Amino acid sequence: MRLNHTFFKRTGCVLFAAGLLLQACNKDLPEAVPLTPEAPTATETLLQKLNAPEFSILKTAVEKASTFASTTGKLTDLLSNANGEFTFFAPDNTAILTSFSLLGLPADANSLNFFRAGQLDSMLKYHLIGGTQLTSSRISSTAPALNMYLQSMLILAAPSANLPPGYRMPIFLGKQGSAVFVNNVPVKTPDIMASNGVMHKVAVALLPPDKVLWQTIAANAGGSYTYFKAAVIRADGGESATGQFQSALSTANANFTALIPTNTAFEQLLVGQITKALMDKGMPGPAAGTAATALVAGYGVTLISNPASVPVYGPDLAAVITPQLLQGLVAYHLLAKPGTTVLGYRDFTVNFPADNAVNVPTLVNASVPAHPGVSLKATFSGASLTSATAKGLGNATASNIILSAPPSSTNDLNHVNGVIQRIDQVLLPQ
Question: Which partner from 13, 103, 293, 402 sits 20 to 30 angstroms from 267, CA to CA?
């Protein structure tokens, strides 16, 4: 048997030099766009706005957080600073109680007692942007770049040598029509003006991520990332922090959207390709399908990680499921920022282009600039997302982004350095 299907032959031609892919790790993320503040018309400060009954839990949280000796200042001082200029994403009581439920805590104000003052300081400063008064009218809704990168007041302690001192956790603002989102969280009431900034009421609290992408992928949470993890490791030539993809996905100040196929998606692709290869060698269709299914069921992820070890078929498998093929495949599942070929880009499903599919480049474009990339599309009912898809150039149909609600979400899995969108097909670059 010789596996010579077009997919295996042509995809393997996409080669990536290690240095080029390390450029794909966006180590020079843009600063928050300078915005000219509007002249404040309100007389109350942001802290005074929290005296409204609907923000009573948030005010208690702010006061408790302010007992923590933070290097970035007390929240009460910041929010009451008449000379300050802030954008504050404020969860009201309903939003905070909903957030408690999503975290598995009682939907009661007393659940604040589960959090230390330092934890609340970090969480609430992720809701605060300093130095700008960002009203909803300033948020662009032009496809496909549907979110703004902004730096919160949460300074991230350096988890690695790759993280610059004083790096601030980014948050992302986007708009679909008139609906405003921060990350993937809807803004319920925008543009509540204060004398020292603007407040946007959000549907749930914003939880700052605590892991980089590779930590989640390497952990194989729930067995979800087994094949993709194996593809990354073999593409890198082994399990090493210096591997090009592992390094990029581990760098805290990178910015990626990782479209990660499920294990089932990888298995379906392998069965289909092996079946075709066996049929090309003369094996009848039913027998080829049975043999391919048994091969995938018996050896699973080994077909990706060490195909040469498979009895009988090993040499043929290893000749086509090569590190070079997997380099191209992994790169095709990492989105690049529109208008670039190597800089990563964070795309929540609420930022997907609505109605009409729009092509977005991937890291494949770093070596094949003319490649059309991946076609993204979302469908909304009002401001609610009902479906989202990603289609590869070589796929007959679009892959679905697997949608589910938090806390066990399968989409919009936010990380320090990007977001994971799980998909039900492996995307084929050609």
Answer: 13
